[in-house]
Design goal:
The chain is of the alpha/beta class and about 450 residues long. It folds into two domains: about 180 residues, Glutaconate Coenzyme A-transferase (3-Layer(aba) Sandwich), CATH 3.40.1080; about 240 residues, Acetyl-CoA hydrolase/transferase C-terminal domain (Glutaconate Coenzyme A-transferase). It is built from 16 helices and 25 strands. Strand 13, helix 11 and strand 14 form a beta-alpha-beta unit. About 50% of the residues are buried.
Length: about 450
């Protein structure tokens, strides 16, 4: 049978394809642009005949119809490995549950522990060899589809095709059903605009950066600020090795800074696991031989990261306490995002020859009533610890950069208070004294 005959034999409508889902099943939507839009809509229409169907996904923009159609969660229960802004809103409404993890272990979770009854995701059209490309979702897909009892692919011609290191595609022979249909172009996501505080933090990082470094940047306004400053700087011959590729890298590429010339592995290649950003970003990575997508078991592996000389990781957090513990996924008890790859890159970049791992935040934030709060806290009260104090190295706010490696509790308290907003420093000193992590000889700020 030719691959095209096999393709036609497996072609179904979305409604026909989702008939395979049974009550009690575990379903996987993979991640981001891999969300199966047509299949999700068709599955939601079966709500009243299905019960206790569990769905996993992450970094998915809305709407997720199976979550929206069933506020009782009697029929569908949605779970996320890492929350997008939309999924955070679902959490606020009690319609999404977070799954704790570190991304370099994500494939192993599926391989060894998790059941997948039906995997459904969006892919590029089949090529002449019978392969479908995982596109911007390459980082998480292959092991999910290998583990699945049934694989359903939804064809979305708007997806960019990414060349990969391995596990970036699936062959028609490993697919059970295929769905076609109309897909709107992906929405033009707004590029986060850096604040003045973001620019100050980025400026504080610049003296720690040099020619030939390889960068991992998170997503948000701060990484964009870093990207803009680097693009305008004299730095050159930078590399990219990142869990998530955003428009910050496109800016570096457009400025001629991103050459990957001195990478000690994957030389000449901008390595990524997932990509989320503008249409211009997707156009840049589409069939670009200088870009390579890999599973996150590779991209985020600390043992891989540490092989890259001068690896620099820049991530953000929500708050830190005086002991040096970092929370990057909750604000109090409210879930915000996820662990992601922060811990992976903290460990890997810090072990790299010449490497550095930075965690950044503004010193304060304002609540909905306009009241200002410190992000440097005496101690946590219910916040989830993303990065333990034993793995936190460089920290940055608009007030400077400090290195926590090998520091005792009183040294950490002094360094962290130096990063806090001046309006909160006296209170933090009093708290440190009460927590027995402040020496009488410490200077007062």
């Amino acid at each position: 049978m030719s691959i095209f005959t096999e393709y036609r034999s497996k072609l179904r409508t979305p409604e026909e394809a989702v008939r395979v889902v049974k009550s009690g099943d575990w379903i996987d939507y993979t991640t981001s642009l891999g969300k199966p839009i047509l299949l999700d809509q068709a599955l939601a229409k079966r709500r009243d005949e299905l019960f206790d169907v569990k769905i996993r996904g992450n970094l998915i923009n809305g709407p997720i119809e199976v979550a929206e159609c069933d506020p009782s969660q009697e029929h569908f229960i949605y779970n996320s490995w890492h929350c997008s802004t939309y999924e955070r809103n679902l959490c606020d409404r009690g319609l999404c549950y977070f799954i704790p993890m570190v991304f370099h272990n994500n494939s192993a979770y599926y391989k060894h522990f998790l059941d997948v009854n039906v995997a459904m995701m969006s892919v590029t059209p089949m090529d002449k060899h019978g392969f479908f490309n995982f596109s911007t979702s390459t980082g998480v897909c292959a092991q999910i589809l290998r583990k699945a009892d049934i694989v359903i692919l939804e064809i979305n011609p708007n997806l960019p095709k990414l060349y990969g290191g391995y596990d970036e595609c699936i062959h028609i022979s490993d697919v059970d059903y295929i769905v076609e249909g109309e897909h709107e172009p992906f929405p033009e996501l707004p590029i986060p605009v850096p604040t003045e505080t973001d620019r100050l933090i980025a400026a504080n990082l610049m003296p720690h950066l040099s020619n030939g470094i390889t960068l991992q940047l998170g997503i948000g306004s701060l990484p964009n600020a870093v990207g803009q400053l680097i693009a305008q700087s004299d730095l050159k011959d930078l590399g990219m090795h990142t869990e998530l590729c955003s428009d910050a890298y496109l800016e570096l590429h457009n400025a001629g800074k991103l050459t990957n010339k001195y990478k000690t592995i994957n030389r000449g290649k901008s390595v990524l696991g997932v990509a989320i950003g503008s249409r211009s970003l997707y156009e840049w990575i589409d069939e670009n031989p200088s870009v390579a997508a890999y599973p996150l078991e590779y991209v985020n592996s600390p043992t891989v990261i540490e092989q890259i000389d001068n690896m620099v990781s820049i991530n953000s957090c929500i708050s830190i306490d005086l002991f040096g513990q970092v929370s990057s996924e909750t604000s109090g008890m409210r879930h915000i995002s996820g662990t992601g790859g922060q811990l992976d890159f903290l460990i890997g970049a810090s072990a790299s020859r010449g490497g550095k791992a930075f965690i950044c935040m503004s010193s304060t934030f304002s609540d909905k009533n306009g009241k200002r709060h410190s992000r440097v806290l005496p101690h946590f009260n219910g916040e989830i610890i993303t990065s333990p104090r034993s793995q936190v190295y460089y920290l940055a706010t608009e007030y400077g950069v400090v290195n926590m490696e090998g520091r005792s509790t009183w040294e950490r308290a002094e360094l962290l208070i130096s990063l806090a907003h001046p309006d909160f420093r006296e209170d933090l000193i009093c708290a440190a004294e009460q927590q027995h992590i402040w020496r009488r000889s410490n200077k007062r700020y």
